[in-house]
Fold:
Amino acid sequence: MEKIKTLRGFRDIYGEEVEKLRLIETTSRKYFELFGYREIIIPVLENTGLFIRSIGDTTDIVEKEMFTFKDLSGESVTLRPEATAGIVRAYLETGMFAKERVSKLFSIGPMFRHERPQKGRYREFRQIDVEVFGIDDPMIDAELIWMTSFILKEIGLEKYAIEVNSVGCPVCRTNFKNIIVDYFEAKEENLCDDCKRRLRKNPLRIFDCKNKQCKEIGAASPVLFDNLCDSCKIHFYGFLEYLNTLKLNVSINKRLVRGLDYYTRTVFEFISNELGAQNAFLAGGRYNNLVEAMGGPNVPGIGFAIGMERLAMLIDKTVKKATPQFFFAYLGDRAKAFIIPFMERFIEKNLKLSYLPQAKSLKSQMRYADAIKADYVLILGDDEIEKNIIVVRDMAKGNQFNIPLDNLALIQNLSAFLEK
Ligand code: HAM
Structure:
């Protein structure tokens, strides 16, 4: 019978990649806790209108990448393509905005975008998302980058670059739009059909176009960065000063634009050239008008999202286990009777012990120990029981030694020996 397979762009994740994703998650959680962020869990499925209103109806995400369908009651629903929109909705719907002056939140989970799959680009992918509501001071913009640098350092990532830019506010954008429309209009016949439309509806989106000719025209255009209003300039240079104080190396990419419409002022991306075309493994920015645009009060916001699979691709070393993995290999029924007391002792001591309930031979048990990457194998047979010893095999070093077999003392003996 023909087998049913995963959908295009959807994947099963297992083995080492899962360990890397877990490492990213636990390390992030550790620093979120230290920096005062609280977790929020939001739905995966939302009203389609939520994303259209927040991400913007002329963005690629909304125009072509959403998993949107009618549910059984005929309502148009969408699998979330990102988390910011849902978190803003929740911030308003739960009344959080009225209860606290500042809200620092994070959320972890899968996102869905109907993009063309390629290396580092999937239709289901995971993000660690961080959002801060209620602070306009650029110190928080820098703090987000600072916090991230702790996470990446602990994960062991060294080679990456941080690009920053300011995309201004509605004031500078209105002025700039005229400049840019004049520029693109003069070159309109060379733009792709999509960009001709964007020129009327949302000219700044032309910078997002992947068409080669549009890219070239875009690359030579005037930039918003050179046309920022005074307060946006002050904000951006304040941000740079904090980054400098924190000794964080960033480069200004005046052409950095983001694929979502809600951004104002600060935007940033963490990139690595080991990733190929999809080189950003973390991206974010400020969205000072989004909360209000979603029907809330005038509260500024800023945040970012880590692309977990992309970051996992950059962790090349195998993830170090927190505690060693033990495996118990037994020969015969007398030895098998030690499984339960051993397991009880190991669990009590938070140590990992594994065994095969239906073991046929020592060879098959050793093969299994290899497969589960056991660090130490404890071997017990009738001989050892007679002599009141157990054999401990160090799998990395390939040597083995005996220690006294004493049910209750086993763990103490083991730890004493392993510490030597
Ligand atoms: P984004 O740039 O669309 O921003 O996505 C953030 C990160 O998610 C990207 O840098 C990338 O690492 C990862 N990512 C995006 N699409 C895919 C995909 N198809 N496959 C694998 N990874 C992907 C946002 O989503 C904003 N909500 C970030 C934000 C939070 N801004 C403010 N607050």
